[in-house]
Each structure stands twice: as structure tokens, then as C-alpha cells.
Amino acid sequence: MVEVCLTFDNGPEPEVTPGVLAVLARRRIPAIFFVIGSKLRDPAARACAERAQAEGHAIGNHTLTHGEPLGRRGATEAVAEIAETDRLMGALHGPDRLFRPNGGGGALGPHLLNRAAADHLVAQRHTVLLWNAVPGDFRDPDGWVATAQAMLDGARETAVLVLHDLPNGAMRHLDRFLGAAEQAGVRFGAAPPEICVPLRRGVAGADFARHVAASSTA
Fold it and tell me: Is 66 a catalytic site residue?
């Protein structure tokens, strides 16, 4: 049986997130929503995140602006991307203080964090959740379903699947994808594998350093 930890990045979007939540509620599937901090300044978008939390989904920090990956930024700027989003999130944070860096299209590596950002995440006892299945719904809003199905068919461990609650039309296929996956025996709601959690409540695992650039600038 393939197990999936379902996640959504780059929201909340008032035109899209409520529909995603409705699908998840109908199918009783839990998810994690990694929000862009600047979007929480919009009361309608914040209400979406609050609804997601109230309906049992976890909310995580996905940087303030989702610009250049933090490993390619200066120390002060990178820390601010995390800290300001934490401030805007407030009570949306759960006990794990989830954080997901911007990979720039789903790539993993030392571009994800610089040393200052990594040290800040440790000091603030964050949990970093990465990914191992990115079907590209953000660039292929109609074809991502087939890509995701192929990824799950080939999964050898729990898949941390990254989708995006963005207004590009991709989420109109969400219910169809989830239904087909469940019929194929996929179980949603799984805990992520350890390899996708290089930092847990401020404690670094063996792979954390692989995602940190060698040095930070001021």
C-alpha cells in the first residue's frame, strides 16, 4: 500500500483554498498547508488558513515572499523571511512549528537554506518538512494528475506530495485525483518519512547539513 503525506504550498488563496478544503472534508483526508506569509495580510486569505486549521489541517511557514531560495540570499534577509512569517502566523502555528523552504521548482540541495536561516530554525525549534514527490501542478495545471499517479505508482517509501492551492485551474482536478488514488489503494494522512524531516523541533538529523549553503552573507 502506498502511503502519502499530502501537502499544499503557496496559499492561502480565497478563490481556491476553500474548494480544496471542501474536497478534503468530503474525503476525510488531512493535509498540511504551507502558507506564504505576505498573503496572510489579506483578511480573506487569513480566514482560509484559520478555516484549514479549524478543520484539522496543520499550517506551516513557507517564507514571507517565496522569492529566491534562502540559500542564495543574505543572512538578514533569509532570517526575516522566516521570522516575519512566524509573526504573521501567530496562533496558526502548531507545536511542531512547521517550516518548508522554497526549492525553486522542487529541487533539493544546499540552495534551500543559508547558515543564518538554519541557525534560526534550530533556535526557534522549528520542524522542517521537505518533499519527495512534486508533480508540477503549478506549471502543468491539466497534466499533473497523470504525473502524480506515476510518482505514487513508483513510490518505495511514504510520499510527501506537494500540490499548490493556486488560482491556475490545477485544483479543479483534485477530487478526481484523490478518488482515483484511493481506489488504487493509496492511503492519505501518513506521517512523512524521516528523510523528509531533516530538522525536528530544533534537533537536526543527519541530512540537515545537506540543505544548508556553506556560508551566509550579511
Answer: no
